[in-house]
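Lecture 7 notes: from sequence to structure.

We start with a single chain of 453 residues. Read the sequence below before looking at the structure.
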Amino acid sequence: MPAVRSFLFLAAAALLSSAAAHPHDDHEHAHAVNARMLPSTWYHAEDHPVRNLFRRADAATDGVTYAAVGSPEWSAGYPPGKVDTAALPQAWTDALAAAIKAGTIPNIPPANFVPGSNPVYPNGLDPLSDEVCSATEKCRNSGDIWDAPDGVFASSFDDGPTEFSPALYDFLKENNVITTHFMIGINILGSPSGFTQAFEDLQSDIAVHTWTHPYMTTLTNEEVLGELGWTMQLIHNSTGGRIPKYWRPPYGDSDNRVRAIAKEVFGLTTVIWNQDTEDWSVGTPGGATRTAVNDNLAKWISGPKSPGLIILEHELSNDTVGAFMQAFPLIQQNGWNFKSLATMNGGDVYQNAADSLASVTPGSVGVALASPPASSSAGSQTGSSSAPAGSASAGNKNNTAKTSAATGSGSSSSSAAQATTSAQQNNSNSAAAALGSGVLSALSALAAALVLS
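Now the structure, written as tokens:
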């Protein structure tokens, strides 16, 4: 029996010694180190395929679930070509009627289209008169934008997206800059991948260049409404609910009537330019040459910095894109401040969002915003969908609202689950600590009993 007591005593002492030497939370002891070195970075490269599986959607939205860009549901309900004035949303026509009744839309007759020439107004109406003030004839309305701030190269491109756009977008991204894309509505429909590259990947600023690129002063009020409205609606539904703030008339063709419709009905500011590369005409009979375009860009960039530059450039061909790429190093070398045109004055890019990442105040195209946009880039807000009339999105407003609500519920449930898991882990750790303490107490008692017996 003494031999048994001695054995138990030694065993208990050994257990006590082991438990005391290795407490649960003590990590001061040495670990075996694998001789293979760890990788220099802890993350996958940007172009690694796995990133597509877990890519975070950085751009905030208005809380509405819109059809995926490029899907049949996304393109449904929009004009396939020329605008049908009989199919315009009632909200737009009501807003136009209200503006006309309020006297904010000048009663200027549409100009006549003349091939190879600027539009001509009927009855000898002077395009340079205060009544008309045609931007096509270089009449500057005080509400339009023609010049950039001193020292600013305000970058923008017209007519995208096209087959030549991806090369431009890649170049901009490689140089860590963005621009303002004045996009054509039917071009967006025809090149959804180009649009998503510009907005989602490059995170550039999106603006309006009409639906079909017509001479705007030759259109009726309702046709102007459709050219602007449908382009705005498509951009709105493709950017998480952002409402464009800027538009550029094709050929610079605008007057007091057209600009008033843009401003009074849609809240759009008209943007023209102070230098024209005529890059769009390269390769056409009698058009500019690539050398001439390059020379003009170099001349303007190396010239005076007052006013700043707004140069008309396009995403139309390898030459138009290539001319910009060739001139780009000169911009920094000559001390210009390169900015996306939509940000050149420090204001918001969209009517209801600071930029392509920031939070979005819910709003509808052609309906005045009830509150100013929030400037914070965190979070999103809930709102109702504003989809094209007759589209799948318009027909499923209730479903999109339900989807938004379900998304919010999922987030709350996820947070609750995480909190529950965390609490369970804490309880588990506490239980383990208590168990360890109990074992030590029991062993101590056993040792004491053996000593006393």
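Strands lie at 152-160, 180-183, 205-208, 246-247, 269-270, 275-276, 311-312, 337-340. Keep this in mind for problem set 3.
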